């Protein structure tokens, strides 16, 4: 019985150790982050409902109000939102 408990604890520990965020959770986080960025930049958006990654720091964000923005980091290191 003790061996079974140890094995269960080991399996649980390994699962927790190797489990990472799911791609769906990362996508939700990205949408929230883009929504916050657009709000801080004063771009009328409402809420970002989808995003397409073009490069590491370059996304096309589609908003709930129908607007689309290219959100990227400029050469100067600033976040920019260009209406598409």
Structure description:
There is one protein chain. The chain has helices at residues 2-18, 23-40; strands at 48-55, 58-63, 68-73, 79-83. With 84 residues, the chain is an alpha+beta fold. The protein has one domain (22-83). 11% of the residues are buried. The model is unreliable at 5-22 (pLDDT under 50).
Write the SSE topology.
Elements: H1 2-18, H2 23-40, E1 48-55, E2 58-63, E3 68-73, E4 79-83
Antiparallel strand pairs: 1-2, 2-3, 3-4
| Rounded mean pLDDT score | 78
The low-confidence parts are 5-22
Amount of beta strand: 25-35%
Strand numbers in spatial order across the main sheet: 1-2-3-4
The main β sheet shows up as:
4 strands, antiparallel
Specify Rg, calculated over alpha carbons. Answer: 20 Å
N- and C-termini, Cα separation: 64 Å
Extended strand count: 4
Short description, anyone?
This protein has 84 residues and is α+β, with helices and mostly antiparallel strands. The chain has helices spanning 2-18, 23-40; strands at 48-55, 58-63, 68-73, 79-83. The chain is globular and about 30 Å long.
Main features:
30% strand; single chain; four-stranded antiparallel beta sheet; 2 helices; 42% helix
């Amino acid at each position: 019985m003790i061996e079974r408990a140890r094995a269960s604890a080991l399996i649980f520990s390994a699962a927790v150790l190797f489990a990472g965020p799911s791609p769906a959770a990362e996508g939700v986080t990205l949408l929230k982050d883009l929504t916050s960025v657009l709000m801080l930049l004063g771009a009328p958006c409402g809420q970002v409902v989808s995003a397409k990654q073009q490069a590491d720091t370059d996304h096309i964000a589609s908003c709930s109000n129908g607007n689309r923005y290219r959100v990227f980091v400029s050469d100067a290191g600033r976040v920019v939102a260009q209406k598409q």
